[in-house]
Design brief:
499 residues, mainly beta, five-stranded antiparallel beta sheet, 2 helices, 37 strands, 49% strand
Length: 499
């Protein structure tokens, strides 16, 4: 083999190992494929991790699994969601739960058809999922929990996430009214070792128990943040880094007065950030940001409204000191209209992470959700567990106009998929009346695919009012990792093997 071809095969092998298994594509026999070009191929294996949904005995949790139909995907394969086999010893309390694994609560169906399941009470475990073949490209699992009363009551939702080695969570808290846990789930056959760093308004918080936390194989570990430090912080940034192995991580934020929700990880540190889909009836919006490096960040704060980009009066900029968590109250910044927050550098670009804490309702009838900064939709984004009423899809194109196609899948219990195309003007956010499957029965999934124009960012809000309290939860729609970029070989591999 020549050296160029060897390097291409090595690159493809390494890429498959990191992002999912993919097949190296041979060029056409005609030789039209250019050497060194990259092909987008369906992933052949993917993993998802779902945190333990609740410790409340009155919690009801729904799971929805969905894989979009992917062109060129394998004709076979399977998807499985298994309960974590055990909970490892609590690193901060030195005790075990003794809870044993239970059977999966949802059995994934064929691509294009959602599958739903449920669990009740505090015994619902964390889940470890693996999909292969035709089930892998874009596999999405949503976990939605209703808690009728008590600390963190309301609607809590999260997309089950892929394992990784680093996570940033601006927007956590160790204030007296908050009970925040960081959930760590290990999908692998060997133990993972994790460090947790906490950053408040004055910098790093001292802790003697946040380093070297062991998460046993196929196990889930909830870590109560206020056991890691004796310094209460209203606004906190949590950094999870993995010394060995990999984990899934999410923060469950529970508030005595304003309910609770899951805080997903922010997008990787970047100079510009987008937080899409602030509810138009939000009564309070709080921005929390953190600059991980050694340089302060100065950010321009703008709201992408239905009519264009506007600057919130009195909050035109935000100064973020290096290594310190900064926060600012934006009030009812959307003022009855759809909106997304856009952060850009005022001068030199300095990487930051950020998230929004959003409150709906007033007085005793308040509920909370979070919108972390996210990446663009990319090739395609998918979100499950939608209903004919109660789902709001928000899409923003902060840089330039774009056209997108939104597809509603078949229902989990019946219905026919439908698609619709929408145009998003540059610098705006639109709350889209997402299509609903004809003859819908059960829940359905939404996929968003850019057709033309600039990058778009999206989120989906689920709403369900209980006893006058406006329960809601918001999930971002990043690229669903349905494909992987694989360099094409310079010539047919069967020919090269004979050389």
């Amino acid at each position: 083999m020549n050296r160029t071809t060897l390097s291409l095969i090595a690159a493809a092998t390494a890429l498959a190992a990191v992002t999912g298994f993919a097949t190296l594509k041979s060029p056409d026999a005609s030789g039209d494929s250019a050497a060194g070009t990259a092909a987008r191929l369906p992933v052949e294996r993917t993993s998802l991790l779902c945190p333990q949904p609740s410790t409340s005995d009155i919690a009801d949790t729904a799971y929805t699994s969905f894989t979009p139909v992917a062109e060129g995907a394998s004709g076979s394969g399977k998807a499985q969601l298994q309960a974590a086999t055990e909970e490892s010893a609590d690193s901060t309390a030195g005790k075990k739960s003794g809870r044993k694994a239970t059977k999966p609560v949802v059995q994934p169906k064929e691509p294009g058809k959602p599958a739903a399941g449920d669990a009740s009470g505090a015994d619902a475990p964390a889940l470890v999922g693996v999909a292969s073949g035709k089930f892998a490209p874009g596999w999405t699992v949503q976990e939605t929990t209703e808690v009728a009363a008590g600390n963190g009551r309301g609607l809590l939702g999260t997309n089950c996430t892929a394992p990784d080695t680093e996570f940033w969570f601006p927007g956590a808290s160790t204030a007296a009214a908050r009970t925040d846990y960081v959930h760590l789930t290990n999908p692998d056959d060997s133990a993972a070792v994790v460090d947790i760093d906490l950053y408040g308004k004055d910098g790093t918080l001292k802790s003697t128990v946040a380093d070297g936390i062991t998460v046993q194989p196929h196990a889930s570990e909830p870590i109560l943040l206020n056991t890691l430090t004796g310094d209460p912080q209203t606004d906190l940034t949590v950094h999870v880094s993995v010394r060995s192995g990999r984990v899934g991580a999410a923060v469950q934020a529970l508030d005595e007065k304003t309910g609770g929700d899951w805080l997903a990880a922010s997008a990787d540190p970047a100079g510009s950030l987008v937080m899409p889909g602030i509810p138009k009836d939000a009564t309070s919006v709080r921005l929390v940001a953190f600059a991980p490096g050694d340089t302060d960040a100065d950010l321009k704060v703008r709201l992408a409204s239905p009519s264009g980009l506007i600057t919130p009066a009195g909050n035109e900029t935000l100064h973020v000191k290096a290594g310190m968590t900064s926060a600012v109250d934006l009030g009812d910044v959307t003022r009855g209209e759809a909106g997304s927050l856009v952060l850009t550098p005022t001068g030199s670009s300095v990487p930051v992470v950020a998230a929004l804490r959003v409150v709906r309702g007033k007085g005793a009838d308040q509920e909370t959700a979070f919108i972390p900064a996210t990446v663009p939709v990319g090739a395609r984004a998918t979100v499950a567990d939608n209903s004919a009423k109660g789902s709001t899809l928000a899409v923003t194109a902060p840089d330039g106009g774009a056209s997108i196609r939104v597809t509603a899948s078949a229902g989990s219990e019946g219905g026919t998929a439908v698609s619709k195309t929408f145009t998003i003007k540059g610098g705006t956010t639109q709350n889209i009346a997402a299509p609903v499957p004809s003859g819908l029965k059960g829940t359905y999934a939404l996929t968003v695919e850019p057709v033309s124009g600039g990058p778009v960012y999206a989120s989906r809000m689920l709403a369900a009012t209980q006893d006058g309290v406006p329960g809601f939860t918001i999930q971002n729609l990043p690229d669903d990792r349905g494909t992987v970029s694989v360099p094409e070989a310079e010539q047919d591999l069967s020919v090269l093997l004979k050389q």
